[in-house]
Amino acid sequence: MTRIVCNASPIIALSSIGSFHILGQLFDEVMVPQAVHDEILHDTGAVGAEQLEIALQQGAVHSFEVQDQALVEKLSGRLHRGELEVIIGAVEQGISTVILDDRQARMLAKTFKLDCTGTLGVLLAAKAKQLIPEVKKYLDDLSSQGFRLNDRLYREVLDYAKE
Fold first, then answer.
1. Is the pLDDT score of 148 beyond 90?
2. What's the CATH code of the domain at 66?
3. How many CB atoms within 10 Å of residue 124?
4. What's the pLDDT score for residue 44?
5. Number of structural domains, the chain?
6. Can you say whether residue 99 is alpha, beta or left, with left for phi > 0 and alpha for psi between -120 and 50 degrees?
């Protein structure tokens, strides 16, 4: 059973291009900590809010409370609360994989011995499992939605996808 804890940015990015459903197709259980839940659902008109709300209601995504709020507070300032709750929550839940886009968050997750992927890794995995025919269209769609993607990374992802 593949369980993951996901941060807000991948949910927002995938939702912005109509591909939020990919998470549920790739992973058996998608978890979001309360801080991520609140960040996305705070503004009901925000990108990803409707998709996350429906997924929570249908049981495709599960929300949870991080128990060690003292550690979250101790580490806050370096990262956003949602990123910290993803990392600490994954450890608490016994989940080994997190989905984070922020480089500093990924570095911290690795110090907790967590496997990391991000929005682009999700798209590559979706192509590998033949859930999507190509990655390029999705990268272009993400770029048009304001997702930060430099030329070097764009080319690396396409090379990895053999496109």
1. no
2. 3.40.50.1010
3. 18
4. 60
5. 1
6. beta
